[in-house]
Amino acid sequence: MIKEIALADIVTMRAAIRNGVDRVELNSRLDLGGLTPDDQTVAEAVALAAEAQIDLVVMIRPRGGDFDYSEAEIEDMRRSLRRMRALGVKTVTFGVVDVNKHLARDRVTKLLEAAKPMQVVYHMAFDDIAERCQQQALRWLANYGVIRVLTHGGKLTVPITETVSHLQEIVQMAPTGLTILPGGGVTFENAGWLAQQLHVSELHGSKIVPLPLKDAL
Predict the structure, then answer these.
(1) Angle, to 10 degrees, between the axis of helix 71-86 and the axis of helix 105-115?
(2) Three-state secondary-structure class, residue 211
(3) Helix axes 164-173, 191-198, angle to 10 degrees
(4) Spans in the chain with pLDDT lower than 70
(5) Cα gap 98→43, rounded to integer Å
(6) Which residues fall in a coiled-coil region (predicted)?
(7) Percent helix, strand and coil across the chain, each rounded to 5?
(8) pLDDT, tens digit, for every residue of 153-181?
(9) pLDDT recorded at residue 217
(10) Are 18 and 71 spatial neighbours (Cβ–Cβ below 8 Å)?
(11) d(C-alpha 33, C-alpha 65), whole Å
(12) What's the rounded Cα separation, in Å, for the pair 138 and 106?
């Protein structure tokens, strides 16, 4: 099983690698759900991921809150994407959802264009898309080359053990070639059970592997 961890600093990344993580999603401000990290941290993470031979995904998100970004914010995200490409990043993650709870196709297209040739993951903004529109969104994302979708299967306030039913539906809806990456409340203690219930081979969480306390890192 591929274990992806969400983290925000290099010290934690080193500890996660020692404890068997397979892929890192690098953020800043995990307390806000993850924002775009600074260039220095990204550069260090790119080097460490190459040294450890693991994959690195970098978050592109300009602020906390909803995912209905203004045109100015989209331009900021496009600039971030260009910087990440220059720093050697191979995979990025972002998401945009409009005020009507639909996939914001025009704005996502602008970001996809700016991201080339990096690979793209659509992050947990997916859970803000109305359920009736999610299958169509998955098909569109797959058609436009997105490789994975990170999803909790519902609101993050609901434990993932209670969103399993909808996660199963999302896994079934996903077109061939689009990986569904369950996350949000996945830990090293429940990962095996979740993988079995969902028939998935990849999981995401900030506690997907055991980590020492911050003071001991």
Answers:
(1) 20
(2) coil
(3) 50
(4) 213-217
(5) 32
(6) none
(7) 45, 20, 35
(8) 999 999 999 999 999 999 999 999 999 99
(9) 46
(10) no
(11) 8
(12) 15
Q: Supply the pTM of this predicted model.
A: 0.95
Which residues sit opposite 5 in a β-bridge? Answer: 24
Given this model, what pLDDT does residue 191 score? 96
Residue 109, φ and ψ in degrees, nearest 5: -60, -40
Distance, in Å, from the CA atom of 41 to the CA atom of 107, rounded to the nearest integer, reads 27
177: which 2 tokens?
């070639």
Token reading at 188: 């090293």
d(CA 103, CA 67): 10
Distance CA 176, CA 47 (A): 32
Which sign, positive or negative, has the C-alpha torsion 123, 43, 185, 65? negative
d(CA 60, CA 104) in angstroms, rounded, equals 16
Domains and CATH numbers, the chain: 2-216 (3.20.20.380)
In the chain, which ranges are E strands?
A: 2-7, 23-26, 55-59, 91-94, 119-122, 148-151, 179-182, 202-204
Angle between helices 131-143 and 164-173 (to 10 degrees): 40
- Count the neighbouring beta carbons within 10 Å of the beta carbon of residue 174: 20
Determine contact, residues 96/67, Cβ cutoff 8 Å.
Answer: yes
Please enumerate in sequence order all residues whose Cβ is within 8 A of that of 105, keeping only pairs 6 or more positions apart, or say none. 140
